[in-house]
Design brief:
mainly beta, 4-stranded antiparallel sheet, 3 helices, 22 strands, 36% strand, globular
Length: 346
């Protein structure tokens, strides 16, 4: 099942999950069987959130908020019967977010703990004297107890489910989902997996797991970087003086879509430029590089929006091997809501 097709069967399992949250299902079932509905039955429904799907398996996973308790659930074809994977049964106020599935649906990862505030403090609503942490956890969808992977947040799970990437101290770290017999300094989170100049963020695995795209911020501009695991080398796609961000891989792993907005000191303003999409780049060595991945449903990558006042909106396409780019559409508007899409093509 592809990500675009799993939505068709999503409604049914989530509706089922609302009535089968097993924390209080037995008492509710007895009450309904006796024909005596209660106020609590209507005022305390579970809320399924953060739904995700496995790329190569008919399985979905989500977080359910139920009377202060947050747990991870999963369901698989053909019945899509909800199954609770975790047993966090205390209303301790600890948040649970970022649920992800491996490609085969065998491993689910998630984050326990709130995001740190401006001072770097993690919320401690239960006043635990040991303090609060934001941690990445994992659990097998076949059953068993969850386990802690690393201290961090926003995990990017590798396609094979063996590793997670996360950002700490502005660098990219890697954690082993399945602990090694002799973990090294990288596995223990003592050494960055990718240490580069600037502030790194948004790591994204390629579909085959061989490369990692991420954002490398440099203060007044930012690049899209690609790490090659085979050669352990870094390359920067179409680097310039603008802010590039939000990289997303195409399904075949040959292209990356990203956003671009003007860099702080170099943004051009007060002009309007129009270029017909695809015409000027059609003569680039005989290759017609049109924005097909953004218009064909099966290859759709990303559409993003943000509030950009008096800014340029630019469409890009480029050669990922030669890392050359051509600006194919530039527009300036003064509306509070703007859209900007960019694409790196093969």
């Amino acid at each position: 099942m592809t990500r675009s097709s799993f939505a068709a069967c999503l409604v049914a399992p989530l509706v089922v999950s609302l009535s089968t949250a097993d924390v209080y299902a037995q008492g509710t079932a007895r009450t309904v069987a006796q024909g005596k509905p209660t106020i609590a039955q209507f005022l305390s429904p579970a809320s399924p959130l953060e739904v995700t799907a496995a790329r190569k398996a008919d399985r979905i996973a989500w977080m359910t908020y139920d009377r202060g308790m947050r747990n991870v659930y999963t369901a698989a074809a053909p019945a899509f019967r909800p199954v609770r994977l975790t047993r966090f049964l205390d209303d301790d106020g600890r948040d649970l977010t970022d649920v992800n599935l491996s490609d085969d649906g065998s491993i689910a990862v998630f984050v326990r703990g709130s995001a740190p505030n401006r001072q770097g403090w993690v919320a401690n609503p239960s006043h635990d004297p040991s303090g609060a942490e934001r941690e990445i956890w994992a659990v097998r969808t076949s059953g068993g107890a969850p386990w802690r992977v690393a201290e961090g947040g926003a995990p990017a799970l590798s396609p094979d489910g063996r590793y997670v990437l996360y950002v700490k101290d502005n660098q990219i770290y890697r954690g082993r989902v399945i602990a090694a017999a002799a973990p090294d300094s990288m596995d223990r989170g003592q050494k960055p997996f990718i240490a580069a100049w600037g502030r790194q963020s948004n790591p994204r695995w390629s579909p085959d797991g061989s490369k990692i795209a991420f954002v490398s911020g440099r203060g007044n501009h930012a690049f899209i970087a690609v790490y090659d695991g085979k050669t352990r080398s870094l390359a920067y796609l179409a680097p310039g003086v603008d802010f590039d961000g939000a990289p997303v891989w195409s399904p075949d792993g040959k292209r990356i879509a990203f956003t671009r907005r003007p860099g702080t000191p170099f943004g051009r303003r007060g002009e309007m430029l129009w270029r017909e999409v695809g015409r000027e780049i059609a003569e680039d060595e005989g290759q017609l590089l049109v924005a097909e991945p953004l218009t064909r449903p099966k290859d759709a990558i990303m559409i993003t929006h943000g509030k950009l006042l008096n800014s340029r909106l630019i469409d890009f396409e480029a050669d990922a091997v030669k890392r050359r780019q051509r600006e194919i559409h530039t527009e300036i508007r003064h509306d509070p809501l703007q859209h900007a899409v960019a694409c790196i093509c093969d």
